């Protein structure tokens, strides 16, 4: 079977539905609605039209030769998901799930968010479709992404700062699941990544796979051949699976996921789930997971809120297990240096999340050398990260910074 | 359900001599391991018929704020899975009530499903309540519990289809945990009428025992639930009583709740 044809609930030994019985009916309802929508040309047409006239699809590709000079002679091509409306790839998935919400007749949506990109995208879709919207965000993240909190509130969403546990993305997911268990009859959960119980990993992937489908043809048109390698950052893994998917059965194309190495995978402060974790069950699916001996989830760390997650989508665990994709860690500092390098050489300010993929591409380029072409998913723009970047590179005037 | 059960006969007996069984929940290690053991013993000595001992877990999606706060404190105090087995052993050495362990699934997977079943049985435990394991994903646990004779309590919800209700009844042993309302744990003013519907459907599907949990905090609610179900499960209210009034506070509430098991 083609790797691209793989569907849920299981990806090899990974995936499934490890959830309270209270949620099974909602997951069944969502799964059935999605299976019908998949086959309905009207659904596909409506989503494609939203992509065209609202998101700005297809997103362009940009070759970055001045940046690539630092990558051992390889060509580097960026897939510009940062240019999408709302500033990242997250909108692709949200529009699909918001359309499904209308189909199943629910009037309220909830979502979790880390960096705030998925929350902003969900609040945006809720405004567009006239839905009530509540966003759960870890308290730590509301502090480091205050601008996105303001954006969501301006869009009309209620933002709940989650104070449980590590007060980051994983705890926001727990709180969103509690809301869903309680309000399942009126509420749809717009999940932001390819983790979670079936049907989310398959459905979110399907809404994101347009990234790779477009990019594969765009690279062929530009260079006359497929790329040597495809690079993406991996938190939960939705932008990575989105760009990988079209290439899964292209055997000559290397697929590389770059996890948040934080302060180094030899420290306790990282979010390199596949690199350092082992299989377990978290948030409804069996997948790789950062955990202690007793199966308690270990708090992750990354300078980027969007990658600060101790789990990963089950399809990535499967691709790692069968050797189809390779996952490597990139440290906070390597990502920040890549952020500044792309900004200075190309005039493109990337999100810190996407900067992990850029740092990975620099490393890959040096390994693959002349003649290699590396396609990088520039999954988000850096506007939201200006405060973090200003502090990291000491860009504020001393008095203004006080 | 098969006939061999540890908690089943206790529930059956209480439905003969009283209006049903009272099951009390407490987390291991809150406020300390020793006090959690003392509190569990106090519940039984004050009329609780079976214990549900919760193992603290980092990501408890079914738990409301009271139990979250307690289990988070237990984890911060250094709770280890081994403490769970020790608590079961110390409690069952002192009281005869069956002790079920409530645990999210990942700790069992990491410990090893077979090893967990062996060590729980060796400690004197009666079985497991698994809030995030549905029978569809439960093949390993069903096999391990068959081998060791442990009870396995799956959940049924108001939104469960009849087909799922039938599957839960078939897979469970001891009783089926009927979620009384669409929500997480936490005491509620009114136990949802949906509970009655779930229990009726469980009984129609052949469940020998259904116990209702989530949202029960008073003797009157216990009595109301026992009009149609074989057992009532109280969690957050007991945890709050323990937090506020110590072992004596938990015991006093248990005695009060137990008055709800006497048919009026």
Strand fraction of chain B equals 5-15%
Radius of gyration of chain B: 16 Å
Overall spatial form of chain B? globular
Largest inter-chain contact set: A-B, 35 and 38 residues
Helical residue percent band of chain A:
40-55%
The quaternary organization reads as heterodimer
Task: Kindly describe this structure.
The complex is a heterodimer of chains A (about 400) and B (about 260). Helix content of chain A is about 45%, strand content about 20%. With about 400 residues, chain A is of the alpha/beta class. In chain A, the strands form four sheets. Chain A has a six-stranded mixed sheet, with helices on both faces. A four-stranded parallel sheet of chain A has the order 7-6-5-8, with helices on both faces. In chain A, helix 5 links the parallel strand 5 and strand 6 (about 130-140). The longest helix of chain A is centred in the N-terminal third of the chain and has 19 residues, at about 20-40. Chain A starts with 9 loop residues before the first strand and ends with a helix. The model of chain A has no long low-confidence stretch (mean pLDDT about 95). Chain B is globular, with a radius of gyration of 16 Å. The model of chain B has no long low-confidence stretch (mean pLDDT about 95). Chain B is built from eleven helices and nine strands. The chains are: A alpha/beta (about 400), B alpha/beta (about 260).
């Amino acid at each position: 079977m083609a790797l691209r044809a793989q569907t849920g609930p299981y990806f090899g030994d990974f995936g499934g539905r490890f959830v309270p019985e209270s949620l099974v009916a909602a997951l069944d309802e969502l799964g059935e609605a999605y299976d019908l929508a998949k086959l309905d040309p009207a659904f596909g047409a409506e989503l494609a039209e939203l992509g065209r006239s609202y998101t700005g699809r297809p997103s362009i590709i940009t070759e970055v030769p001045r940046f690539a000079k630092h990558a051992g002679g390889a060509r580097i091509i960026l897939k510009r998901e940062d240019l999408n409306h709302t500033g990242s790839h997250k909108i692709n998935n949200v529009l699909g799930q918001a359309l499904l919400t209308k189909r199943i007749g629910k009037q309220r949506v909830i979502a979790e968010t880390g960096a705030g990109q998925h929350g902003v995208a969900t609040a945006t879709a809720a405004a567009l479709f006239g839905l009530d919207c509540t966003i759960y965000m870890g308290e730590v993240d509301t502090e480091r992404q205050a601008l996105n909190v303001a954006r969501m509130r301006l869009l009309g969403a209620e933002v709940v700062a989650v104070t449980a546990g590590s007060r980051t993305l994983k705890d926001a997911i727990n709180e969103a699941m509690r809301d869903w268990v309680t309000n399942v009859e009126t509420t749809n959960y717009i999940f932001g990544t390819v983790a979670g119980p079936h049907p989310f990993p398959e459905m979110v992937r399907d809404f994101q796979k347009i990234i790779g489908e477009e990019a594969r043809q765009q690279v062929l048109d530009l260079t006359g051949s497929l790329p040597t390698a495809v690079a993406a950052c991996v938190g939960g893994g939705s932008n990575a699976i989105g760009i990988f998917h079209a290439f899964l059965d292209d055997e000559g194309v290397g697929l590389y996921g770059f996890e948040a190495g934080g302060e180094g995978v030899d420290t306790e402060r990282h979010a390199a789930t596949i690199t350092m974790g082992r299989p377990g069950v978290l948030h409804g699916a069996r997948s790789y997971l950062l955990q202690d001996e007793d199966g308690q989830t270990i708090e992750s760390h990354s300078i980027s809120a969007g990658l600060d997650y101790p789990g990963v989508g089950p399809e990535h665990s499967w691709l790692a297990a069968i050797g189809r994709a390779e996952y490597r860690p990139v440290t906070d500092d390597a990502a920040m240096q890549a952020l500044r390098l792309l900004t200075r050489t190309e005039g493109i300010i990337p999100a810190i999340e996407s900067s992990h993929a850029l740092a990975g591409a620099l490393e890959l380029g040096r390994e693959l050398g002349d003649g290699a072409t590396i396609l990088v998913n520039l999954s988000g723009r850096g506007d939201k990260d200006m405060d973090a970047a200003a502090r990291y590179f000491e860009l504020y005037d001393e008095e203004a910074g006080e | 359900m098969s006939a061999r059960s540890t908690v089943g006969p206790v529930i059956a007996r209480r439905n003969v001599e009283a209006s049903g069984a009272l099951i009390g929940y407490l987390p291991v290690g809150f406020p300390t391991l020793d006090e959690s053991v003392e509190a569990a013993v106090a519940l039984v000595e004050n009329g609780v018929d079976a214990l549900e001992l919760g193992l603290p877990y980092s990501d408890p999606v079914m738990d409301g704020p009271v139990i979250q706060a307690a289990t988070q404190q237990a984890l911060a105090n250094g709770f280890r899975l081994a403490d769970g087995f020790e608590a079961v052993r110390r409690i069952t050495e002192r009281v005869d009530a069956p002790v079920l362990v409530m645990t999210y699934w990942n700790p069992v997977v990491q410990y090893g499903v077979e090893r967990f079943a062996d060590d729980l049985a060796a400690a004197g435990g009666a079985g497991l309540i698994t809030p995030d394991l549905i029978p569809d994903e439960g093949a390993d646990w069903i096999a391990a519990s068959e081998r060791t004779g442990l009870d396995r309590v799956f959940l049924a919800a108001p939104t469960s289809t009849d087909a799922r209700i039938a599957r839960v009844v078939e897979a469970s042993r001891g009783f089926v945990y009927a979620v009384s309302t669409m929500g997480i744990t936490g005491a509620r003013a009114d136990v949802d009428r949906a509970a009655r519907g779930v229990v009726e459907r469980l009984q129609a599907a052949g469940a020998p025992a259904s116990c209702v949990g989530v949202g029960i905090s008073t003797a009157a609610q216990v009595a109301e639930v026992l009009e149609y179900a074989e057992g009532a499960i109280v969690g957050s209210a007991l945890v709050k009583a323990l937090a506020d009034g110590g072992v004596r506070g938990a015991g006093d509430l248990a005695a009060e709740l137990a008055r709800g098991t006497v048919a009026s």
